[in-house]
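User: Predict ABC transporter ATP-binding protein's structure from this.
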Amino acid sequence: MPAVLEIEGLRKTYRSRRRGTRRALDGFDMVVEAGQVHGFLGPNGSGKTTTLRTLLGLIRPDGGRMELLGEQVPAALPRVAGRVGAIVESPQFFPNFSARDTLSLLAGAGDVPRTRVDEVLELVGLRERAKERVKTYSLGMKQRLAVASALLKDPKLLILDEPANGLDPGGIREMRSLMRDLATSGMTVVLSSHILGEVQLICDSVTIISLGRRVAAGPVAEVLAQHSGGGYRVRLEAAADLPVAAEELVRAGARTTVAEDHLLVQGVDKPASITRTLAARDLYVSELAPVTVDLESVFLELTGTAPVPGQHRQVDESAVPGQTGPTQGGWGV
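Assistant:
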């Protein structure tokens, strides 16, 4: 599939008298193919919002190449802007306007048919509340209105920064369904979110950024597979038998680690060989399950942001690719 978004070697440095020189983007690369829901992930301060704002011409980069819908930006932004819908950070609306007034104003400014206003209000679930003033809206309702505003132009590329912010569980599920429906219709969606369980459910592919550099990218299943140790988790009817069982499995050629209440067995082609080996010594399995990883655990590993008991991680303390521990050097947003 052709790429609708390409970033190569993007760099952005901020300079401040108080904080000195900080690199927000340090040679960042990203590719999003057409028709996908693509997750753009990173911890606070990693450079996600700087990337999105740079793509949309709100920040001037120091170097690198960017393309949207096959055209180089920022030079081509006037030509491609009408085919891109975006919400970045927390959108602001006139508090005394209703949702319908807000969208009608935006539709008029963008030469969008007024009929589209009712269509997007229906899509985001605000039809029945469209006449109420925005200042009476909850955070989740304002977020729905923001998504509606990004959809007004029926864009080819939709960029959403934390679209589930403030939504209740039902609203999150509705947003998930909407994103999938949009992708099915041919729209490409770039989704930045900290709700990693949702990203794993909805996204076809992901890019993970840490301290301004890409640390992982590709189809979600491949990213998970690359960081899965594999193997099987084995529990026995009697936990006291774990050391003996481990010895038997090692003797049979399996790499085996003894945990508190289970074994981690690797290097086994067929799980049935585990049960046969143990049953031959009257050791009986109560649980045998493949070891899997989720996107959250991979994210925490790659960005070095897993909580450490007794420590309070600061915003800029994330992993630098190629180093084993956290460092303090990024100033992305």
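The first helix runs from residue 48 to 55.
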